[in-house]
Amino acid sequence: MTNATWDYDGLRVTMTSTFDWRWSDSGSGGKRNGTFFHPRAQGNLCALGSYGNPAYGEITGKKSVLLVGPSPNAPAGRSPAVARPTSYTNMWSDGGSGGDNDGTMWRPVAPSGYVAMGDVMASGYGKQPSLNDVWCLRSDLTRLSTYEASDFWNDGSSGADRNCSTWKIVTETNGIDGSEYLPIPPYTFRVSQNYGRADTSYAVVPLLRVPNAFKRFDFPLPTVTKTTIPSTGDQFGQKEQCSAVLPFIFYLPNDSAWNLARISKPFYTVSREIAWHVEGVWNNDSPGDFNRSKTIKWGISKTQSEEMVHSAGVSVSASYGIKGFESSVTLNYQFTQTTSKSFTEYQEAETTESFVVPEKAVKVLFSKHIWLKAKAGDGTLASQVEMVANNDIHFGGCDLS
User: Fold this and answer.
1) What Pfam families does the annotation carry (predicted)?
2) Between 320 and 6, where is the model more confident?
3) Model's pTM, two decimal places?
4) DSSP codes joined into one string, 43-100
5) Whole domain around residue 323: which residue ranges?
């Protein structure tokens, strides 16, 4: 069975949790355990690089990574989103280590206009990996990033003739305003030919284009008449304002068991919906006015925010807006109508409205409710937050006489 795909402006993407073993340092006497795998291709969708794991044992079904390839629906007039490397440069061999397995590490050489995204492990000596092992990405679909703070494996004390350390590439924030092109964790690595940090010019991550398609909420305040008096909790004009479809590793770690069980549909859809919501209805059919008050809480609570992070990896706050927890990349470009650094609608607060309900009249208090939803690819609702939008409340009503 093939896993579902999604197209991003000429780049077709899926995920896999199936890996082929290439090498481990078992028997080498090294201080650090390490095993290297290569993600198995799905048709012409291939890995960006090999996968390194700082332990022994199988990882199929336990880890996941991106696969990419050309989209048949790519816009005309542009170079393909992907290209094969032209060759490889040898970066390391375990020769001299005396380990149980022979292996070499290689760096893909990208053609002009493209960028290689990760290094490749090969079993045995003297033979380069296949050029079909990986795709290189068109340069505009990449971004310079960084490595984890320390290497995840090195050959220290193995006795190998050449020194080596391996560094995992990770995403960095794209700024509070966000961007149309979203960095995605690649789970690739780069080789350093010593025990120092790998060359940062090779720490690149893929970008997925997710345009802004935010829709303004223009549904008018509901008109109240004697025959259309609503009830508390009624909603009017609910609509989706925006959404983003991304691989789940944008939000959650690549070893999330809940998502690995759904790897055949590996994309999350995070959306924002809005509607008018009836906070209260006061019907005064007596011959005199009366006073009432209503306290309304708005914004997102700490408990709601923590639950959404835990369940779906979506982080929401008044200080930085919306972002993927695993990637630390914001979705503010996609989830706002205009570029703004103000996300006060997510700030938790409350207001108390005091008002008069005239005799022989009904008064209705409306607010705008917002829903942030995260759905797995199989349609399962992973998390949902409902909140009142800011201090955006309005009165309606009608005469009953």
Assistant:
1) Vps62
2) 6
3) 0.94
4) TTBBBSS-EEESSSS--TTT--EEEEEE-TTPPTTS--SEE--SEEEEEEE-TTS--S
5) 235-399
pLDDT number for residue 193 = 98
Do 174 and 103 lie in one domain? The reply is: yes
What's the domain count of the chain? 2
Q: Under a CB-based contact definition with an 8 Å cutoff, are residues 119 and 49 in contact?
A: yes
Question: Which stretch of DSSP H or E encloses residue 384?
Answer: strand 381-399
Would you report the helix, strand and coil content of the chain in percent, each value rounded to 5? 5, 45, 50
Is residue 47 scored above 90 in pLDDT?
Answer: yes
Residue 340 pLDDT more than 70? no
Task: Write out the two tokens for 262.
Answer: 């759904």
- Contact between 334 and 210 under an 8 Å Cβ cutoff? The reply is yes
Tokens read off for 320: 């930085």
Q: Whose structure tokens read 């033979």? A: 127
Distances (CA, A) of 63 to 15, 86, 155: 10, 29, 23
How far apart (Å, rounded) are the C-alpha atoms in residues 139 and 116? 9
pLDDT at 383: 96
Mean pLDDT value across the chain:
96
pLDDT, position 109: 99
Tokens linked to 164: 């080596």
Is residue 95 a part of any domain in this protein? yes
DSSP 163-215: --EEEEEE-----TT--SEEE-----EEEESSSSPPPGGG-EEEEEE------
Indicate the DSSP class of residue 319. Answer: T
201 with 239, same domain: the answer is no
Is the same domain home to 282 and 370?
Answer: yes
Cα 130 to Cα 108, 127, 134, 135: the distances in Å are 10, 9, 8, 11
Query: Which tens digit of pLDDT belongs to each residue from 53-106?
Result: 999 999 999 999 999 999 999 999 999 999 999 999 999 999 999 999 999 999
The H or E element containing residue 306 is helix 302-312
* Cross-strand pairs, 270: 244, 374
Question: Which residues, 6 or more positions from 35, have their beta carbon under 8 angstroms from its beta carbon?
Answer: 21, 23, 24, 25, 52, 53, 55, 56, 57, 59
Name the token pair of 282.
């006061």
